């Protein structure tokens, strides 16, 4: 008995298949390398194929169960192949041919054509164009023109809405309900818990209310303000620009309530007068309310209170912009804010012809929104997000932007 047969490893019977459908059994010792097994398989299915040394490297053996590609340098035992396992002999896919130089040049040329121009190319292409100096000042001016134009649109739309709503037989009742919405406005309310905390510390209620309004209902900041101004002789003075409007609103409320009783059963003329009073009351309630902190800061710079309130109204309660307005040419003037848009202009006609706007003008809430945005532009976001007034404001904005581009 030969020595190699005595110490030979276990012989495995493997089932080999090809993609063409050929099948056979190969009996190999378990210490046979995968490369040797692959040579035996190629001799069986492709006679004469081993004359080309590349034939072996162009084929691979795959374990059918695990779908693993067997490594040529490993043995059958190392690849954990068991007796009766099935192997698949397939030809490797040929690598894609390398691109021709002409194709490479064409691809590079295409990429260069699609590449964005650099700074030098832009300067060369625009060398003959007239120069324009556009800076932030111009952009700010354009934004202000937009705000001014929007105010004019709102002024004119308020007039149209009032006329349309006055024709509604239920207008008085509608506006009584709408007016009640204003009474629920959170802006004038004071946080009762915060107020109680300050009064329990010993601060007078009226002074605590003023401190909370100045400090956006923050107890800590209000307390610091009260301590800082404890010896200030003007600490109990009303907030600039606030008390007159509140007093006027209360007077308007009492007059409107007095008119509401007998007018409810009166004729059309009296109902119209009552509606006019309600409109006035709404307007007084929605009067512009300047930011108290901004008023105090600007007055400390030496400006008169009326001038400061006008500046804040023109500049949407923005303190820095109001300061620039006071130091500049003061354009636009407060009187310009009450002027409406030309009713014969294409812009206004396009707005009125929009079905969404037409429907919205018959809703009392839309009129309230216009009044509020007219005097408090910072509240525009609130009305833009409202399900009733938002679509109207969106259409107005789209029409303005479209005609502004033409």
UniProtKB/TrEMBL annotation:
Keywords from the UniProt entry: Cytoplasm, Repeat, Ubl conjugation pathway
Compositional bias annotation for Basic and acidic residues: 106-117
InterPro entries: STI1_HS-bd, UBA, UBA-like_sf, UBA1_UBAC1, UBA2_UBAC1, UBAC1, Ubiquitin-like_domsf, UBL_UBAC1
Record's GO cellular component terms: cytoplasm; ubiquitin ligase complex
GO biological process annotation, one example: protein ubiquitination
Pfam families in the cross-refs: UBA_7, UBL_UBAC1
Chain positions covered by the region annotation Disordered: 98-117, 232-272
UBA domain location: 183-229, 289-329
Localization in the cell: Cytoplasm
UniProt feature, compositional bias: Low complexity: 243-266
Pathway in which this enzyme or protein is active: Protein modification; protein ubiquitination
SUPFAM superfamilies: UBA-like, Ubiquitin-like
UniProt protein name: Ubiquitin-associated domain-containing protein 1
Organism whose genome encodes this protein: Haliaeetus albicilla (White-tailed sea-eagle)
Name of encoding gene: Ubac1
